[in-house]
Amino acid sequence: DGGITQSPKYLFRKEGQNVTLSCEQNLNHDAMYWYRQDPGQGLRLIYYSQIVNDFQKGDIAEGYSVSREKKESFPLTVTSAQKNPTAFYLCASRGQGATEAFFGQGTRLTVV
Amino acid sequence: DAKTTQPPSMDCAEGRAANLPCNHSTISGNEYVYWYRQIHSQGPQYIIHGLKNNETNEMASLIITEDRKSSTLILPHATLRDTAVYYCIVRVAVGGTSYGKLTFGQGTILTVHP
Description:
The structure holds 2 protein chains of 2 kinds.
Chain A: E1 4-7, E2 10-13, E3 19-25, E4 31-37, E5 43-51, E6 54-57, E7 64-66, E8 76-78, E9 87-94, E10 101-103, E11 107-111
Parallel strand pairs in A: 2-11
Antiparallel strand pairs in A: 1-3, 3-8, 4-5, 4-9, 5-6, 7-8, 9-10, 9-11
Chain B: E1 9-13, E2 18-23, E3 31-38, E4 45-50, E5 55-56, E6 61-64, E7 70-75, E8 84-92, E9 108-113
Parallel strand pairs in B: 1-9
Antiparallel strand pairs in B: 2-7, 3-4, 3-8, 5-6, 6-7, 8-9
């Protein structure tokens, strides 16, 4: 089935450790996005990529890093520089034209 | 991208129509209006989008005012499963490699009551 997959669903890490969240899509979409969502809040854009080997900062990029080596994959690394990393992270992808974005089911990261 | 404004919360009785408003007074001529919804702890789900004309699909109807400065999402017969956060966003439909940001606001929490 075509879709966008995030893994793992739940992730626990110790404070000070870097952690990488996976996002894979088989929809042949060029654009991919990472969002952070805190309890009771909307989605805030972290990074986005419009094409392989290219990405741009969103509204809250500090403490995060990404790569886009393959069209299908857009991993997000939460670094130790992120002051408050515990959150729900969502990945999305989008194709050309007036098409909708498809979202993964999210990864809930808890840093202890 | 044009900014959108939505009420923070709304209630609706089960079986009645839910009408969710969105203001996008700075929308540009080439920007589409999209609606998504997010059920608790899941990824947002696409509902519908439109440019100028009203649109209808199996989930909802979208009414866009003639000046395009506001729109209304209509769930014709709301059920308890429609309880969710509804997001209205505006976005240019582009081709090539120019996709740009996809920015969400706070959305409207719709609660459907029995």
